[in-house]
Specification:
It contains 15 helices and 21 strands. It is an alpha+beta fold and 456 residues long. The chain has 2 domains: 324 residues, Naphthalene 1,2-dioxygenase Alpha Subunit, Chain A, domain 1; 122 residues, Rieske Iron-sulfur Protein. Strands 1-14-15-16-17-18-19-13-20 form a 9-stranded mixed beta sheet. A 7-stranded antiparallel beta sheet has the order 3-12-11-6-5-4-7, with no helix packed on it. It is globular.
């Protein structure tokens, strides 16, 4: 798959056309656009349903709803997952809710029953349909949906002609697989409703350009000039070392010098993320970082202290029995830091922990979306926390921590601002917001909207 790289180029070297970086507000407000997405985007893309560990035994299932579609994925054998439209073939009642385990699938309306592999098992008073067409077992069995997995994540696709998941994801797996996501487990999972278009929410986490202003408190610990790589419909963001100070140092734009003793900075930076996000680092890595203060002298060079910090993380993981990925510095550089898998799956990763997002429309209202947030950690097998899904009708009622609260405030303020008569187009930064431009190229492709065409 062709790669368009936008990294160290000067402004304008790979600039997008005006029609690409100028994004009409109708893309976020129009019901016509939302209807096109319902018909032409969501039925054709691979979507994350959840994690394999949520389906541990035969009969374990999870449901996934997006717009008018409801799908359930169920384990039908120790080594097999299947997915089906979540609807009874009699009168259309939804069959399963949430997640759980079952030996058969029963419709609570009229009692029709299905085997877990989707085959019809029981039609109450089936003789009443004697001689009627379209009543064979094949007609009545549940309609299957494509399902596949990658690194512990379960995906579904409604389009029987869509490319295989591995091809669809490329080159994400070859870049990211060394991190061994399949060995990670939920630390926490929260889902919230946000009053903004789903694309506004995707974009809020698809660029680092906002970090300087939105997360100003983080400037004490990290520089903030980002560059991106575009890979087909997907994108990756990173902080190239050529443009940034090493992690732990204050951002250059603050005018603050790099401290001679970097130990307190590194400890405080990791503690800050743990206190205000509870993701990206495992709790044991946070604790291990404090070894810097007792095991290194104050004059330890910055790069040496960073290397020791990562060594302490690995030692803590190995000592606990959680293990550590076998990954080279070259692989780390190639993997980057933050990926958007088109259309709505975004993740940031560290060596043994990461933060994952899934965003989808909340029904037919283009001004509302459902936002899932997963914090994953590499635990000792068998010692991971019990899986607990939290759901909040209002994101303000969910304890998200300072960093995500800052982001979610932006999203709703953007949605309100889009309605202003004084605003017509968003202007995406051609370098630091190039994933947003690329995202809309892909959306237009699925929807059949020509470049520069405005709807609604």
């Amino acid at each position: 798959m062709a790669t368009v790289r936008q990294d160290l180029s000067p402004p304008g070297a790979k600039s997008a056309s005006a029609a690409e970086f100028m994004l009409p507000k109708t893309l976020y407000l129009s019901r016509e656009v939302a209807e096109l997405e319902k018909r032409h985007l969501w039925p054709r893309v691979w979507q994350v349903v959840g994690r394999v560990e949520e389906l541990p035994a035969v009969g374990s299932y999870v449901t996934y709803d997006n717009l008018d579609e409801s799908i359930f994925v169920i384990r039908t054998a120790t080594d097999k997952l299947q997915a089906f439209h979540n609807v009874c073939s009699h009168r259309g009642r939804r069959l399963l809710d949430g997640s759980g385990k079952t030996q058969q699938i029963a419709c609570r309306f009229h009692g029709w029953r299905y085997n877990i592999d989707g085959r019809i098992q029981t039609v109450v008073e089936r003789g009443d349909w004697a001689g009627c067409p379209h009543m064979s077992d094949a007609d009545l069995s549940l309609k299957s949906v494509r399902v596949d997995t990658w690194q512990g994540w379960v995906f579904i696709n409604l389009d029987p002609n869509a490319p295989p998941l591995a091809k669809y994801l490329s080159p994400v797996p070859e870049r990211v697989d060394p991190y061994e996501f399949e060995k990670w487990r939920y630390r926490w999972h929260k889902a919230v409703i946000v009053q903004c278009n789903w694309k506004v929410a995707v974009e809020a986490f698809n660029e680092f350009y906002h970090v300087t202003a939105t997360h100003a408190q983080l400037q004490q610990y990290q520089d903030d000039i980002s560059r991106c790589e575009l890979h087909g419909d997907h994108s990756m963001m990173n902080y190239p070392p050529e443009l940034n100070r090493m992690w732990g140092a204050p951002a250059a734009r603050t005018g603050m010098p790099v401290p001679k003793d970097m130990r307190p900075q590194l400890v405080a930076g990791v503690d800050e993320f743990e206190r205000t996000l509870k993701a990206l680092w495992s709790p044991r890595a946070v604790a291990a970082t404090h070894r810097l203060m007792t095991e290194l002298p104050p004059d330890t060079p910055h790069e040496v202290a960073l290397g020791k910090m990562m060594q302490y993380w690995k030692e803590a993981a190995d000592a606990e029995g959680a293990g550590w990925p076998t990954i080279t510095p070259e692989q780390v550089a190639k993997a980057g830091y933050d990926w958007q898998v088109f259309p709505n799956f975004i993740f940031l990763m560290n060596f043994d922990a990461g933060l994952f997002y899934r965003i989808r429309p909340n029904g037919d209202d283009p001004g509302s979306c459902i936002f899932d947030i997963w914090s994953l950690v590499r635990y000792v097998p068998g010692a991971e926390p019990e899986i607990k899904h939290e759901f909040y009708e209002r994101w303000q009622d969910c304890e998200l921590g300072l960093i995500l609260t800052q982001d979610f405030l932006n999203m709703e303020h953007v949605q309100r601002g889009l309605k202003s008569s004084g605003f017509t187009h968003a202007r995406a930064n051609p370098l630091q917001e190039s994933p947003i431009i690329n995202f809309h190229r892909a959306v237009r492709k699925y929807l059949g909207i020509k470049e520069g065409e405005e709807l609604g």
